[in-house]
Automatic annotation (TrEMBL):
Family: Belongs to the glycosyl hydrolase 20 family.
Protein name: beta-N-acetylhexosaminidase
Signal peptide (UniProt feature, chain positions): 1-17
Organism from which the protein derives: Shewanella gaetbuli
Residue runs in coiled coils: none
């Protein structure tokens, strides 16, 4: 298509040039055009104004007349306004549209999808050129729905050719670049028009009952909590197993620091380096090591004490502090609890005794650096905060369609090519732009960790008792690797080295299979019938294992990914030969995907490495052919029977880790607001309170307290179900089996910067830590005989609900009055919540999710004022929350 258009544009230019020579009348603007110059392209890109707006998500308005009854469509309009006349027609504008364009609805432009979310906008023969001040509107129909301002991806860029047919340097259209809000520090998209019509722009279907979280809605939501200073004097996070206050609690001042008895630590078998990071976090809050400070003694736990990894005892007396534990993590966690107890106002802690141990041994956080890269410093900061809240598994996702982020010795193409996105259709220097990355490779969303960087990350994590679990997704989600190895193949073939060229080749050039992944790629899946694919996997894993060895933390778990394989290989001659050979017992092309997972899982097991994968891919395997200690991450939606697969895989005996999207995907919006960042395919509102409320040991019971993505009740049936042959389809967890833990996820499709990543992760990560460490008394006990749960089943009793509300009141105050300030001192740019507000009879009332945060309001034409109590105002009024240090502001909302 690109070549055809370019040729037709050249022919059109030549024809028009000829016409202009024979016609003495004033030419039409298009007829005057012959060719672009670089300076002209630069100028045009700098002044073209682009506006992007969602018109409607209502199927009756958006879909074609012959659409199916259940088809979902949306309509978008893109306004193009030039400040100067421009007649040239041979240009192309590239932009990211995450839900693909199905049809263009006006007659001057064409749009075609290039690859993934990359689209090409071109003028057609009806195009009449740009006139100064005139707006041309491109109207198109898209697939599915569009419910967020963040969907308007940035960095549109324009491409054109000069008179010799040489492509000029692509230019980003300046009006489509993101900007930074000076008050919040957040990315904003000024080219995206604000949503104003809830029904047409923010409602998915007629059944959608989710309410836009405007100030009056948040005011009602926040009314369940209030400022309570009494609960924070002894509060800490995560909540310990037991906490006993002294009969007459006293405040112990740590203003003069702490004096660590390092000899007692050595006597307990622990080197100081094992707790050094925890001590540094305490020092960051103002409590430094000092001989004159309060004595801190360490002792080895005896046999009668809970010996589970991470267990500890913390005793705070008037004149000394003692920590008892079995191993390094317990001592570190004891200091972490002391840090959490600390009042920043006066650097005091209360006298008490804590006996504590973790609920789960797997307490994880997953970060995707493939879709958009995140810096080493961001990762170091994240690791430090994970340790502060007793999380112990870092699942680092470094290989996907949009980028390969780890240097692999011997395979330089993976990072030379696969770590960069730029405008190169040959994909020999980089892979194609996606996710609004733009045409240039020198952008922060590109990048990779060198081998030295990775070793540093693993060492940093190990010093904080955190295991790093690397992941390069395969066999799907592998486009970056495939394109990089294609470049390697071509380069070596050009050198005449066919054997080396084919050693790590990942696709069959003769494969004619037509497929599309969930992200709309048709070339992102490894060919699992090729031995070179397994050579590649073995090479990558072996090199990563060497880096772990160098870092001093052996590679003990590797995550294959194994999810969302798009049905490739169906027409691959190599696969046909593979099946015909029948060496591995494969008789059907549908079996080769499971074969890949089973083979790689056992390849890992043979190296002493636990294999991990996402639950959908893992469910396709033959359990008997999988290593018994396999790990599976459950990313199934509970509202869509997600508990069934979780229970099935728990019953396999696998290490089953809950990663359920509607509560543990931190790339989803905090509140139901189109201005909030994030994807939203499973939830449009996942705030900290929802994460706190998660009943992890009884997934179906959450149907009693949650709604689905459209704000409607759902039912979770956990009873035994068999087919007509008596084969078990689904059923409850077997007695004696349980999930291994939980993990938060940050996927990065819409998360472009480190600052945005921190906004999305914090403070939800703190609630992840709470649920991973502490089992609340209000959680509905699991019923092994199986039950049906819904909004009326009544297992989540009124007393349980009341206790949950009481615990959240304490937690919300702890965050607002104590913990967020500690994040600030670590330089973490967490999300400051949007405030609730109403105006009744001229009186403004305000509240916030985390009591204790300062609030401000501003009337039209006036200055910001501190809010303390209901105040007389004239509507409309702007409202916002302020960080404890006063430096950062939450997003401003308007209340009428």
């Amino acid at each position: 298509m690109k070549t055809t258009w370019a040729l037709s544009a050249i022919m059109m230019s030549l024809s028009l040039a000829a016409c202009s020579q024979s016609n003495t009348q004033s030419p039409d603007p298009v007829e005057a055009a012959v060719a672009w110059q670089q300076s002209q392209l630069n100028d045009f890109a700098s002044q073209l104004d682009v506006k992007y707006r969602i018109v409607t998500n209502i199927p009756e308005e958006a879909c074609a007349e012959d659409a199916k009854a259940d088809e979902r469509c949306f309509i978008v309009e893109i306004d193009l306004t030039s400040s100067t006349d421009l007649a040239l027609a041979d240009w192309e504008i590239y932009f990211s549209q995450m839900r693909p364009v199905k049809a263009v609805l006006n007659d001057q432009f064409n749009i075609e999808r290039v690859k993934g979310d990359l689209h090409r906008l071109t003028p057609n023969n009806n195009f009449t050129g740009f006139k100064a001040g005139e707006t041309k509107t491109v109207r198109f129909r898209g697939e599915s729905w569009l419910l967020s301002e963040v969907d308007g991806m940035p960095n549109y860029y324009i491409v054109a050719k000069d008179a010799q047919g040489q492509e000029l340097q692509p230019q980003i259209i300046a009006s489509t670049m993101v900007q930074v809000d000076p008050e919040t520090g957040m990315e904003v998209r000024p080219y995206v028009e604000e949503f104003v019509d809830a029904k047409r722009q923010y409602q998915r279907t007629e059944q959608d009952k989710l309410v836009w979280a405007k100030p009056e809605v948040l005011f009602k939501q926040n009314s369940a909590v209030a400022v309570d200073e009494t609960v924070v004097s002894y509060s800490l996070l995560p909540t310990p197993k037991t906490q006993t206050l002294a009969d007459n609690p006293k405040k112990v001042s740590l203003a003069n620091g702490v004096s660590l008895d390092k000899q007692s630590l050595l006597d307990a078998g622990i080197e100081y380096q094992a707790i050094e990071a925890a001590v540094a976090r305490l020092a960051r809050l103002g409590v430094t090591e000092n001989e004159a400070g309060v004595k801190v003694r360490f002792s080895k736990a005896d046999k009668t004490t809970d010996s589970e990894a991470g267990s500890y005892q913390l005793t705070i007396a008037n004149d000394a502090i003692s920590i008892t534990a079995h191993e390094a993590s317990g001592f570190s966690y004891g200091i972490a609890s002391l840090t959490s107890l600390l009042s920043l106002n006066d650097l005091t802690v209360s006298t008490m005794q804590i006996e504590d141990s973790p609920r789960y041994q797997y307490r994880g956080m997953h970060v995707d650096v493939s879709r958009n890269f995140h810096s080493k410093q961001f990762m170091l900061d994240l690791i430090d905060q994970m340790a502060a809240y007793k999380l112990n598994k870092l699942h680092l996702h470094m290989g996907d369609d949009e980028g390969w982020r780890l240097e692999i010795d011997g395979l330089p193409e993976l990072t030379d090519v696969g770590s960069k996105r730029c405008h190169d259709f040959s994909e020999t220097r980089c892979i194609l732009p996606q996710l609004g990355s733009g045409p240039n490779s020198d952008t922060p969303v590109n990048g990779f960790y060198s081998m030295a960087d990775y070793v540093e990350l693993v060492q940093y994590a190990d010093a904080r008792q955190i295991q790093v679990i690397p992941s390069m997704d395969m066999p799907g989600h592998s486009r970056a690797a495939i394109k990089a190895m294609d470049v390697r193949y071509k380069n070596l073939m050009a050198q005449g080295n066919e054997t080396a060229a084919k050693e790590f080749l990942l696709t069959d050039a003769q494969d004619t299979t037509v497929y599309s992944s969930v992200q709309y790629y048709d070339d992102n899946t490894l060919n699992v019938c090729m031995e070179s694919t397994y050579h590649f996997v073995d090479k990558v894993v072996s090199e990563i294992a060497k880096l772990h060895e160098k870092a001093g933390q052996p590679l003990t778990t590797y995550h294959i990914g194994a999810d969302e394989t798009a049905g490739a290989w169906l027409e691959s001659p190599i696969c046909e030969a593979f099946i015909a050979d029948n060496e591995y017992g494969i008789t059907d092309i549908k079996q080769v995907g499971a074969y890949f997972i089973e083979r790689v899982a056992n390849m890992l097991a043979d190296k002493g490495i636990q294999p991990g994968g996402w639950s959908d891919g893992m469910s396709h395997t033959n359990v008997a052919k999988m290593p018994g200690n396999s790990q599976s991450n459950i990313w199934d939606v509970i509202a869509h029977k997600g508990h069934q697969r979780a229970h099935q895989q728990v019953n396999h005996g696998w290490a089953t880790v809950l990663s359920n999207p509607e509560v543990l995907y931190f790339d989803f919006p905090y509140e139901a607001d189109p201005k909030e960042h994030g994807y939203y395919w499973a939830s449009r509102a996942t705030n900290s309170q929802k994460v706190f409320s998660f009943m992890t040991d009884n997934l179906p019971a959450n149907a009693e307290q949650w709604q689905d993505i459209e704000g409607n009740p759902f039912e979770a049936d956990d009873r035994k179900v068999v087919d007509e042959n008596g084969k078990l389809i689904s059923g409850p967890i077997q007695q004696g089996k349980a999930v291994a833990g939980i993990q938060g996820q940050l996927w990065s499709e819409t998360v472009r910067s480190d600052q945005t990543a921190e906004y999305m992760i914090y403070p939800r990560l703190l609630m992840l830590a709470e649920r991973a460490w502490h089992k609340p008394s209000w959680e509905v006990p699991y019923q092994y005989e199986g039950q049906v749960y819904n909004q009326h089943s009544g297992f989540f009793t009124e007393s349980m609900r009341a206790q949950q509300a009481k615990d959240w009141q304490k937690m919300a105050n702890h965050l607002g009055q104590k913990e967020l300030a500690k994040l600030e001192k670590a330089g973490i740019e967490y999300r400051i919540p949007t405030v609730g507000a109403v105006i009744n009879n001229g009186l403004l009332e305000m509240n916030v999710a985390f009591p204790g945060l300062a609030l401000e309001y501003k009337e039209q034409g006036k200055q910001w004022q501190a809010y303390a109590e209901p105040v007389k105002v004239s509507a409309p009024v702007e409202v916002r929350a302020i960080s404890p240090d006063g430096k950062r502001k939450g997003r401003t909302q308007i209340v009428n």
